[in-house]
Amino acid sequence: MFIRRLIFVSALAAASPVAAQVEKPVDPYVQSNANAGATPFTGEQLLAAFHGQDGVGRIVDATIDQGIVDPRTAEIFKATDLVRLRRTLKEQIAYLLGAPVTYTGRDMKSSHKDQGINTAEFNALVEHMQHAMDKEGVPYRAQNQLLSKLAPMKRDVVTR
Amino acid sequence: MTRVVAALGAVLAMSGGAASAADLVPSGKLLLTGGVTNIEGAGGGGLASWATITGYETRDGIGANIHATNVSLPDYKFRAYGAAVGFYDRVELSYAHQEFDTGATGAKLGLGDGFTFKQNVVGAKLRVLGDAVYDQDRLMPQVAVGVQFKRNDQGAIVRAVGGKDHQGVDYYVAATKVLLNESLVLNGTVRLTKANQTGLLGFGGDKDDSYSAQFEGSAGYLVSKRLLVGAEYRTKPNNLGFAKEDDWFDVFAAYAVNKNLSVTVAYADLGNIATFKDQRGLYVSLQAGF
Fold first, then answer.
1. Are the beta carbons of A60 and A82 closer than 8 angstroms?
2. pTM score, two decimals?
3. Is domain A43-157 in CATH 1.10.490.10, yes or no?
4. Where are the domains of chain A?
């Protein structure tokens, strides 16, 4: 009986992925690739090193998965719409790596203004991404190339 | 590239599993971005002082480390140990005790078997502008100014070989830049100094007793998160008449076991020291900190 109910509940969860993907409404803003905060790399080589947009998707998911459980960074994500964050961060990283995608998220300054992130937390998030890139098998040199685009965003992301 | 340690054995034993646990301690900078500790106790490379502030703390905290260094040369032994504290990624205070052991060479120099020059170095460094790691969209490096107060315990011998003083002050400006897109770490330092063999043979000399500007350059390639390999060059004054002083050179590998421990191994060419030529040997330095 219990097992049956468990199966039923799982089935229900599996059957409603659409419901789970709904993003909360956000205040209006002007969409622009400039919101991604850096100019993208050109050519296809770097994106290939990240195993394309699928690889970027896995890296972003693994980064956020670690971010929400690591006590150093968990607090940052408490009030965050993770569905939207996963989507926009995947867009942003893919865009910066030269993928033919549009970044539809907000700019770094306005999206982090209420997060209260400090330098150590910013660095912890970078470490999560490094672990995720390691897990994906992205060569270290290519990892650093992406980080060279993200590092200057500290000025907008770190607010305390 | 040098942060040190008390017990190497214990340290290496904990390298495996403990490393990943240590990665989760709530401390700031990314691996190796704090540099290691140079022979004078300052955050930097092995021979050069860098613009980086020692330790892994950010602008929100205080980091510190201890280090121990050993250089085995054909005719001498060099040892150093010390501690450094980085305040808010802005100010660094450091102390190093250096011993230059002449061993059997001491007798040949007429100093006596095992004669050892000792020197204490107290350093202060202030980061004045730029950020070596985050400013990837700018060419501006991280720049720091520093001062090192040095006092040698062998005043009489120093004067006997032509040195003018057993104590002196070095002033330097260092610029450090991490080029993430190329996985490179670069540093250039200009040092105003009168020091003979960094002060181990005193300050000023019979040939020249004025300050001169010397250069320290370091270039490293980030092989992985934990490993930096590279080379350094350090020019030196030539103040003493009795023995020519050469520029220094090394090739190094700095390995961060975790944020608390790093090991630097180098092959250093220190040239001619007190008339004994070709002083080349293994440089090993350990650094432990938080």
1. no
2. 0.87
3. yes
4. 43-157
